[in-house]
Amino acid sequence: EKDNYQHHDTQLGGAGDRTGNPRMYSFMHWINSSMATSFLCSLQEELDIRPKVSSFLSRLVNYTNITQGAREHEEEESANVSRKKAPKAPNMGTLMGVYLPCLQNIFGVILFLRLTWIVGTAGIAQSLIIVFMCCSCTMLTAISMSAIATNGVVPAGGAYFMISRSLGPEFGGAVGLCFYLGTTFAAAMYILGAIEIFLKYLLPQAAIFHASGPHGGDSAMLNNMRVYGTLCLSLMALVVFVGVKYVNKLASLFLACVIISIFSIYAGAIKSITHPPEFTVCMLGNRTLERDLFDVCSKTVVVGNETVPSQLWRSFCPEGNVSSAQCDDYFSQNNLTEIPAIPGLASGIISDNMWGDYMQKNDVMEKAGLSSVDAKGPAESIGMYVTADIATSFTLLVGIFFPSATGIMAGSNRSGDLRDAQKSIPVGTILAITTTSLVYFSSVVLFGACIEGVVLRDKFGDAVNKNLVVGTLSWPSPWVIVIGSFFSTVGAGLQSLTGAPRLLQAIAKDNIIPFLRVFGHGKANGEPTWALLLTGVIAELGILIASLDMVAPILSMFFLMCYLFVNLACAVQTLLRTPNWRPRFKYYHWALSFLGMIMCVALMFISSWYYAIVAMGIAGLIYKYIEYQGAEKEWGDGIRGLSLSAARYALLRLEVGPPHTKNWRPQLLVLLKMDEDLHVKYPRLLTFASQLKAGKGLTIVGSVIQGNFLESYGETQASEQAIKNMMEIERVKGFCQVVVASKVRDGIAHLIQSCGLGGMKHNTVVMGWPYGWRQSEDPRAWKTFINTVRCTTAAHLALMVPKNVSFYPSNHERFSDGNIDVWWIVHDGGMLMLLPFLLKQHKVWRKCNMRIFTVAQMDDNSIQMKKDLATFLYQLRIEAEVEVVEMHDSDISAYTYERTLMMEQRSQMLRQMRLSSAERDREVSSGRSFTFYMVLGDIATFQTSSLLILCCPVKAQLVKDRHSLVRMGSLYSDEEEEVLESPTEKVHMTWTKEKCEAERRNHTNAPENFRELISLKPDQSNVRRMHTAVKLNEVIVNRSHDARLVLLNMPGPPRDTGGDENYMEFLEVLTEGLERVLLVRGGGREVITIYS
């Protein structure tokens, strides 16, 4: 069996002997390889346009988050793949990538320079409330941000990317710019903090401006801050411009300074339990004195054996000696005492600092527990006391403290450098907020439990000899805090100046704000040079303010705006439950996001209501600018989903019933005709629609393309785009719908039936007049027009037909005078009254006067009609002139008779020309080559058709191309159209002698038909209708020949389709001699009411 198996395998060219039959082996190899991919054969067409799963997953895994503006990003989109550098793989974890950067950004200048002052002013209890409000707001925002950041891959761009992709380009641009302005003003705040530390505590001698009087110290300090702040800003901007890598390398050093400073505070607080620092405060009565203005806290000093006035005495008693009485009354009646500035953690001072002590500007710092005799001293002595530099309140302190809680976006801003952003951002950010919140809470308690109240309220440390207040508590030396806080503020300022230009560059590169495009460019390596320049200019505005306490609320507003929209984005996405909303971070809820939104708004108005209004106004202006002028972006954002849900809810509510008469307005379906180049043939129809609507209500612009949908899809797209462009030019706000149908009138019927959705459906159709219908051999134009009139009547829709629409005014024209004349002959539900009123809302027609004419017959009381009509218009609140035109019965004129005769003769002639259209069609179909060659004169080719040529001589009217024959023979009925749509079908005819005789008789009868046409007498009903049209036209032309627009009732088409052509003639006669006419046909319901 083994031998047989091997023999069999060898015969098949198998593995037993592959060299035995190489042809068979190659054949089997081809079969096997084909079988391996045979399961993809059925999807071959799909694979030509779509990637395989394996290649798709490969590209997805190799996706990298590349910093926007970097050179790698430009090379990522470059076509030159060979020169593309492989971007460095992100390798940062939670600690280095998110936690520590957030700590560095959250801890800042407020902790070291203002937190002690906040605790002393507001008290421990209210300070804890302030810290709780701010930290709760940032924690709720961090939860929302974590949900957004873990909902898919977050490229570089941080908060701006998340908000813009969640709330759309309008909100994204507005909030992105607010975030940018907040970061820029944060740079100014950090620089001001660094300069304050430098001039107050490091090198006071460097001050350029000095106080010129007791109240001149503040202005001198502000000027010093402006000068040194500008110099510092310029130096920092130069460092950022030269290289960001130096800033990033120094970031660790700055963070170390912050951490060491904080630990020194805790160490000093613990040491104060047993060995409090030896800082004292000199008190005059219960008032605090500036310690650097004198040497000894005493009124007299003993020099040798003699008691002499001290330096403090000479300050309060400028003249005289110890025995004289020319001193400040308060100084004379109160004693000097020294109290410890840092009583220590075990002193029980916490009870005195529990409640706040808000002060007005220039109020003296007083200690409540010390005895004092109240006496008024001279104004010159006020400079000896420690006073409040600004008026304080709870709301002011909230605005000043909030920047110390910001910086939570540092992790999301570095998402491009994280190894696993979806894991690191939530954990690192929430952990950093928790850490900083604990530090703030504990610092508030420690400051209140260790430091004297008057020292806490002393913002600049004047009572402790110009030392930084928090530095007096630190261990081992106040210089640890001073130097550490200086470097930390400088580092934070550099980080802000580095991040803000990149954020602006990201916004500019998204191209949603046109005037920011220039800031998307930079140096060759992608550094945002122009954005850095603008950032420096805006930061300089903050430097010129020169007050840390005034700049802090400004950036609080911008950051709160950003946090507000982060919470809004999370809440909207959660409530909409969009399919793409699948965050990995599960500990979120829409209620928490709404609570965060409420807290953001509350903090904005608590901090500064006028700054809040300004910030919201800036965001609103940017939003509207992007909405009207910005580039269109579709990012699948939540606002569009929210709009969809709101639209769905509103549409379901509208389904309850038709709108009330008071709410009725024309919802237009504008039927446009396209030319051969797929351009709008009559764009003034859209102009008229925009003037009528004035941006209100529904407008649907529809068009029909004749053909097959599968073959005409490209034409449909081109037509839609052409219509949308024209709608944008004519400022028509609405929708566009183009349908493909085998017959134009069927397409129009489909549009009339199916346009709109639910309660948002059209109630009025606007269509153009079929110009040149008399001259055209093709009756389809006017037949389609009449069919559309019948369709609108059957659907109970109103109809408007602007005649001579090319003469209608454009949106740029203005009528300074003139009349809009309404000829109200038949009551149509009030359409004729309402339309002029709506037109007059537009600037083109605003200055036109409205005149209403109605027709009175013999048995009508014209005087009473005029009074009734005036009363009716008064109740409608419509201002218009009223005129009643009397029309008497008169004899039918010869002109009317001749006009009717001409109309009927034309109809009869066309009917006879179309009488035998079916036979001619068959002749054209079967003898097409005969006709063609006969025109060329090649009769010899058709020897077999000589009998037909002899028996049936071809008339001259038939020597036309086949397209003319088809058009002339078309009755535009369904049966004939079906014949005409398939002209390639061959009809085999057998010509016999009887058929030739019949054809000869038909041609012999032609003169008789002509004589019958000449002797035709018009129908009496047509004569009466023509008489009415002629007389009414005479009256209208007589009264309204100079009117800007004439509106009149449009008569309905006849029930018998045989009189359609006569109907068109009646309309022509009715509107003859008028420049602009609007034919109006009501929809069968009241559209205007006298009731409120």
TrEMBL record:
Keywords: Cell membrane, Chloride, Glycoprotein, Ion transport, Membrane, Phosphoprotein, Potassium, Potassium transport, Symport, Transmembrane, Transmembrane helix, Transport. Pfam families: AA_permease, SLC12. One of its GO terms (biological process) is potassium ion import across plasma membrane. The keyword Ion transport applies. It is found in: Cell membrane. One of its GO terms (cellular component) is plasma membrane. It catalyses: K(+)(in) + chloride(in) = K(+)(out) + chloride(out). The chain crosses the membrane at residues 98-117, 129-154, 174-199, 227-244, 250-269, 390-410, 430-451, 530-548, 554-575, 587-604. The keyword Amino-acid biosynthesis does not apply. Residues 98-269, 392-669 form the Amino acid permease/ SLC12A domain. GO terms for molecular function: potassium:chloride symporter activity. Residues 683-801, 814-887, 988-1092 form the SLC12A transporter C-terminal domain. It is a multi-pass membrane protein. Belongs to the SLC12A transporter family. K/Cl co-transporter subfamily. This is Solute carrier family 12 member 4. It comes from Gadus morhua (Atlantic cod).
